[in-house]
Amino acid sequence: MNKIAFIYPGQGAQYSGMGKDFYEQSSVAKAIYDKASERLDFDLLSLCFQKDSRLNQTEYTQPALVATELAITAEVMSLGLLPDVTAGLSLGEYTAIATAGGMDLLDAISLVRKRGIYMEEAVPAGQGSMAAILGLSAEQVENAIEPIEGVSIANYNCPGQIVITGLQQAVQQGIDVLLEAGAKRAIPLIVSGPFHSKYLKVAGDRLEKEFKQVSWKPLTIPYVTNVTAQYVRESSDIAELLVNQVSSSVRWQQSIEKMIDEGVTHFIEIGPGKTLSGFMRKIDRTVSTYHIGTMEEADQVIGELVCRTIR
User: Has this prediction a pTM greater than 0.90?
Assistant: First the structure.
C-alpha cells in the first residue's frame, strides 16, 4: 500500500504574502490564522500578508512560518488528503509534531515564537555564521572540518549539500579548507546566529522550561525527528528531542531515507517555497514529490491524489 508523508520547510522559506490565498478562500485556514494572531503579541496577518522587514527576523519568522504551514495543512486535510507520517526541517519539525497530533496548534505557534527569541539571544549578533557547502559528501565535510574548533555540521540536507555552522572565524576557516578539499561552492547564509550548533544549547535549556508547561498529546501518527532521523511514536519523547534539536545537526537526508525504507511513496511539501522538493530530487527520484504552497497547488495535488485514491 502506498504511504504519504507531509514534509515541512524551515526558516528561509518565508516570503511576503505567503498563505494569503488560503486565508481568503478557506474558512479552516482563516480560523487558524485568526486564533494565532490573537495568541501572539504582534499582528500576524499583517506580517504574513503585507511587506514587512520583520518577516526575516528569526523571532517573527518562526511563528509566521509555522502558522502558515498549519493553516495550509488544515485545509488540505479537510479536503481528504491525510498523511501516514510527518517530518519537518528544523523549525518545520514543530509543524510536523502538531500535525501528528503531539501538541495543540496554538501551543506550537507560541513555542516557536519563544524559540526564535531564545535562538537570537543565545549568541551575540555577528559572532556566529553558517554556510552551505556544495559538491562534497558528508564524510568529506566531516573529515575536513574535524580539526577546526568552533565549527560543525548544521544540516545534512541532501547528497552534495551540507550546511556548516559555528563561530564566524571558524566557519570562514572551514569554508577555506572545504574549498581546498574540492567543494564546488561555499555559500554564506544570511542568518542571525550559529543555528544547530553547541552554541545554541542555552536556547534548548530555556525551551526545556517552556516544554514543562505544554500538554503533550498522544501521537495519532508518527513523525520523524531531525535529531536521530528515526520515527517517534510516543509523545513522552517529544520534549527531550526538541530540546536537543536546537543545538543538534538536522539529519534531513537520513530522515527522508528512513521514511522511504518504511514504505513512503508520496512526499508532499506543505508551505512556502520548494526547498525540500529540490532536496528530494537529489535524495531519491523514484518516489513521487508534490508541493502545496498555494490554493491552486492544493487543488491540483488533491485532485490527483485523493481522486485517484492512492491509499
Answer: yes
Vertex 3: Cα angle to 18 and 238 (nearest 5): 65
Cell of 174: 572551514
Rg (CA), the chain: 19
Residue 286 has which C-alpha cell? Answer: 523514484
Q: Rounded to whole angstroms, how far apart are CA atoms 47 and 207?
A: 24
d(CA 86, CA 25): 25
Residue listed under C-alpha cell 574540492 = 182
Backbone angles phi, psi at 308, to 5 degrees: -85, -10
Distance, in Å, from the CA atom of 236 to the CA atom of 102, rounded to the nearest integer, reads 9
Q: What is the pLDDT along the chain (311 residues), one digit of tens a residue?
A: 789 999 999 999 999 999 999 999 999 999 999 999 999 989 999 999 999 999 999 999 999 999 999 999 999 999 999 999 999 999 999 999 999 999 999 999 999 999 999 999 999 888 999 999 999 999 999 999 999 999 999 999 999 999 999 999 999 999 999 999 999 999 999 888 999 999 999 999 999 999 999 999 999 999 999 999 999 999 999 999 999 999 999 999 999 999 999 999 999 999 999 999 999 999 999 999 999 999 999 999 999 998 665 44
Closest CA to 46 of 31, 64, 62: 64
Catalytic one among 26, 90, 129, 235? 90
Give one DSSP letter per residue of 27-57, joined into a string: HHHHHHHHHHHHHSSS-HHHHHHS--GGGGS
Catalytic status, residue 196: yes
Catalytic residue flag (residue 90):
yes
Active-site annotation holder among 37, 110, 129, 196? 196
